[in-house]
Write a structure and sequence with these properties.
The complex is a heterodimer of chains A (819) and B (129). Helix content of chain A is 30%, strand content 21%. Chain A is α/β, with parallel strands linked by helices and 819 residues long. Classes of the chains: A alpha/beta (819), B mainly beta (129).
Chain lengths: 819, 129
Amino acid sequence: MNKPKLVLVGNGMAGVRALEELLKLAPELYDITVFGSEPHPNYNRILLSPVLAGEQTIEQIILNPLDWYADNGITLHTGKTVVEIDRIKRVVRTDDGLEAPYDRLLLGTGSLPFILPVPGKELDGVIAYRDIKDTETMIETAKTHKHAVVIGGGLLGLEAANGLMLRGMDVTVVHIMPWLMERQLDDVAGKLLQKSLEDRGLKFLIGAQTQALLGNESGRVRAVRFKDGSEIPADLVVMTAGIRPNTALAEKAGIHCNRGIVVSDTLQTITDPRIYAVGECAAHRGIAYGLVAPLFEQAKVAANHLAQMGIGRYTGSQISTKLKVTGIDLFSAGSFMGGEGCEDIVLSDPFSGVYKRLVIQGDKLVGACLYGDTVDGSWYFKLLREGRKVHDIRDKLMFGEGALGDAGHQGQSKAMLMADTDEVCGCNGVCKGTIVKAIKDRGLFTLEEVRKHTKASASCGSCTGLVEQILMFTAGGDFSAAPKKKALCGCTDSTHQEVRDAIKNEHLLTIADVYAKLGWRTPNGCSSCRPAVNYYLISTWPHEAKDDPQSRFINERSHANIQKNGTYSVIPRMWGGETSAAELRRIADAVDKYNIPMVKVTGGQRIDLLGVKKEDLQAVWTDIGMPSGHAYAKALRTVKTCVGSEWCRFGTQDSTALGKLLERATWRMYAPHKVKFAVSGCPRNCAESGIKDVGIIGVDSGWEMYVGGNGGIKTEVAQFLVKLKTQEEVLEYTGAFIQLYREEGWYLERTVHYIARVGLDVVKQRILADAEGRKALWERLQFALQGEPDPWFEFDKAQVDTRQFIPIVPVAAAQGEPA
Amino acid sequence: MSTSHWTPVCTQSEIPALGARRVRRPDGVDIALFRTASDRIYALLDRCPHKGGPLSQGIVFGESVACPLHNWTIRLDDGRAQAPDEGCTPAFAVKVEGEQVYLRSDQLHASITEMHAAHCDGAACANAD
């Protein structure tokens, strides 16, 4: 049987990436033919700058060697330019008369450099900076000639200038605009950049307008003349004044182009659905992207449709910029220039070469421009994308996300200063050298890929900024371009919020209903989405949606905490951290009886029995006879208390009594993530209320309530919410706050992150300003907890499959039939 | 192999759908018996190739299980880790007749090292990409 034919025109990064994605989805579907004008296999165009600078070789930047095409049965024609698409006969023709028929055509023709229309532009020694040939020309010229002029002081021009200077040339950058990289930097940062490049030896002619290129008798460029009549010597002129989507082929074939080949959300050209376009040549919703991450997103969607799956949509990317000149840290995103109706927050320290400008409009971060210290770039980018209100964090905004209590990477903020042996990711023990090696050896481009391959930044994420810096300097290009919305997991395009909304608005009651309604790509999800969806169902429709134990992580299925050797830990509940001789005796007896190897006191004022065999769990629970401590669950863990006014000579309030009350009112409560409370009896705060999800501090006149604290990965100090008078009020306000979090938090989002996402003002509005709403929230929590079973004792009601505790022991083997 | 038999171990309904049961072996690590949503039954050594986590305790989805310790995804049919993770856990022969699930007696009695030699040697897994 003849397979349908797929032809790719343009053997570059976007098009070949689409083929790679397609081969993953449907390896046998098409006969694939690729045409490329350049004589090389697909290489990483972004890394031409390091090649020019002598930091890498051409061989090192090849992405798909010739073997790759052969191994995947792809016919590759290099050095051949497609000059015609015959859409009636469905064939493409090359400049040397080769024809190839297609059923589907993928255009990845990229972009062309913009050549200034000045006299002398066709002289020898006048080039653009686009491909391997240009790079080789520059390297060769640098060996024999002295003077280089780069026209255009944007990203590409500065990289070219830097490379030529490192190759020994005397380089002048001519830039018509008032400062460098005006599309990415404001004037202050642009001038700082110019200063540091001048310190390295580059020369600049800012505001100079090129009038002509002058040649010598042999037809080679010798000088550049400007409008004011002045001239500078030039043996090499590199034009880096911008790029234009390469649409000539498509236009000739009658395909609609408007600053790029116009494509739909499925990357099909709007003129001919058999023809797709990806990459720099494509205009999606009016934008032709020139950065690698959006191109790869497009490639994925195009591949999805070519594979006839038909479910991917590309909805555009938001982009940010970094410069890959070694040793210069620079980041910008959004409307960094500010303007009418915008407010600026600026930090400027010229002495240490740090400049940061944050632009705020309508209480939202709309732009950022960072020079010299970019580690918080990804955080600002996230705020910008999410469009979250910022006034509650405005005073801290400038100092970045890591301003408080960041741990795990020795307080480093500049990846470039780190040695290869320095640890970047403290969670997974990943050193800088390991990350660099993985990026180089495996050709990684995105943060997600680095996370998958090295596990760096895959756990707590606090080193994300560092990993992005390393990616930046190792692989070049731009990696912080991100989808406008983040899907819950790979099984769907829906976000957490969209799933929550669908469950609520459509009254969905089962995981299968959710998957059907939202068009999940997988039959029964994965280990990321199933627990999330299960939680959303039971928290949205308590007593209606049925809990699915098989969609819970093992700890919430066996109601104990799995340890590294496959044994479990048991932490019985001690209300408010108070216990008794009788309880301790029963615990001690169980430890002896079941040979439990370790007994440890936890930070939450409980006793942890570690190393319990799964077969013994039921018996240990029964023998101890104390309620489940839920220390294994995304649920209320503990209410930590100090002894309070009953005993303490400083105590102003009975914190232990209130703690017990709170714990009895809210235990068995599942939540997006674990939840911890604390009650201290006086401002000395011995129960550490300042780092709990809800922290209560007794004062002489009542109780202060703090929310959103966290003592984990990043120490986060809880924020003051309200001062209350009575225990009843504390119960109601705490219950209402935690119910708000249960109903609106995203799965695995702690209260601190929930508040950071929606803003403390929203919480204040819902809990403080809206008394009716508060009471309703508190009532909904009580309703949800009504009759909620203790999973250590009420197995049926809690749907605990007790068969899991008993291994199957096959009867004597000989009884079976011969195999 | 001539002495090998199919040994009945349990019925299909004794394994929860999208779940697993552990089968004890006299001389070795447990076997994890999985049941998918479409009632296919698979058997793997109850040990993740990463850090030895008990796969029987993981979340089953599609034709895979996620290890409960570090969330590696292991394929149920051949025990391979999903790329870019690398590794392989031995898979066992399973037979289902009606409701009855069988494992092979020699495999029930083999020790872990023999299993490794038989199912996870050389090219098949070590070079898996």
